[in-house]
Structures are given as structure tokens and as C-alpha cells.
Amino acid sequence: MWPNVSAAPFLLNGFPGLEAAYHWISILFFAIYVSVFLGNGTLLYLIKDDCHLQEPMYYFLAMLAGTDLTVTLTTMPTVLGVLWVNHREISRGACFLQAYVIHSLSIVESGILLSMAYDRFIAIRSPLRYKSILTNSRVMKIGLGVLLRGFLSLVPPILPLFWFSYCNSHVLSHAFGLHQDVMKLACADITFNRLYPVVLVALTFFLDALIILFSYILILKTVMGIASGEERAKALNTCVSHMSCVLVFYITVIGLTFIHRFGKHAPHVVHITMSYVYFLFPPFMNPIIYSIKTK
After folding, report:
1. What is the pLDDT of residue 123?
2. Would you tell me the crossing angle of helices 92-125 and 56-85 to the nearest 10 degrees?
3. Which parts pass through the membrane (predicted)?
């Protein structure tokens, strides 16, 4: 039996209660989207155009910029559609596909940040072997592995959405499709869809964060063994941009988790705003961080 994705569409939501201010909110969102495109697009162009930037560290940065651009392109049409022309309808198939791409790219971004930590670890622990370890082919394999992990791991929870029946309200909480929103509308046993994301988060975000932390402990141990204070500062300075991006990403993840877990009495608009911060703040900040710290 083929899934039925042509039934009644879902309805997207913007900022309930703030409809009168949508004009001003849309200006803010449009400015952020333009900044994200300009910042990440410029990074990609510079890395492609400048032969001095064609090395592992900047290849990983290009992957990060590409991921940020893609997640922004995925959310922008429906968000601006709701804010500009109040276009709230989204077909089930488009909603499920949007949720799949958004969640997959979040895991991809976590994997890229982990890969960048590995890059910094090799650069500081084994500087003389850096280029022989992180060859172009190895960087490509790491990038492919990160992509496959992100997109394959989201297939199990997204696929059942196509077969669920939806007899509850068809109104979503955001201006884009999210797995947690859609599954709550299903009139079916969603036990797997509730438990799988918890396990997935533990095996991706939480595990990645632990490995990144461990790698920086080893990096710090190596740097403290350098005799020259100037050389220690120089070595640590090469990690500042990456550490800043890691903090921006995981602080927003933790903030969103805390709001959902412990902010049940907070206004609904706070939950929604935090979700937008999670999806827009890292893509907005990452180019700025690397522009400040990199010549």
C-alpha cells in the first residue's frame, strides 16, 4: 500500500498573537537571511578562489558554510511565506521532506564541528604529519561519512510519517515542518518516533560534544607542554574560531532543550523564538567568527 501524502495539508504557524507585527518581523528575518547568504556565500567563494585556503581546515569550513546555507534555504521559503503573504498551507510530502532535511543537516553540522576538532587536534599534536594524515581524499571521506550519518539516521523516524493517519489538528507550531510537531498530530502508535530521537541525540549531539571536549583537553595538554609562551598563544589562537562556533552551536542546542523540558509554563512565543534562534543564529554567527579571526 502506497502512502497517502495528498490528503489535507498541514497549516504552518508564525508568531501567534503577533500577527499585527508580521511586517516588522519579516524585515528582521529577511535581513538575517540576506546576512546568512552573504556571509556563507562569501566564505565559499573565497575558499574556492584562493589557493592558499585550499587545505583541510578550510575544506571543513566550506562544508560548514554549505550546511548553513542549505538549512537556511530549506526554512526560508515557508517562513517568509507565512510572514509576508500569510501562506500557511504546506502539503504533507513537502512538510515531511522539509523536516527530514532540517533535522539531517543539524546532525551534519554537529559532525562537521567534530571533524574540525579532529583537524585542530592533528594540526597541534602532529604538525609535521598534518598534511600526510589529512589528505584531500581523507577529508572527502570524512565529509561523505558526516553526510551519510546525518541523512541516513533520519530515515527511520521520517519514513513512518508518510503512513500515519492524521485525525487531530493539522496546525503545526512553526513556519516550517519539524518531526516533533508532525508526530504529535498523528492518530497512531508513535512510541518509536518518541524514543528514536532521544537515542539519536545521545549518539550524535551528546557523543560529538564529549569527543570535542576530550580532543580539546588533549590539545590543551599538548599546548601546555610547549616551552615558549608566544608559541602556546599562537597554537591556541588557531583553535579560537572553531571553539567559538562549537559554543554557539551547542549553547543554542542546550537552550532549546531546556526551554522544551523546563519551560512548560513559558509563553508559547518563547518556545517558537528559541527554535528560530537555534536554526538561524549559528549560520549567522559562523561567518562573522571566522571573518574576525582569519585574515
Report:
1. 92
2. 150
3. 20-46, 58-85, 97-118, 139-163, 195-219, 240-263, 269-290
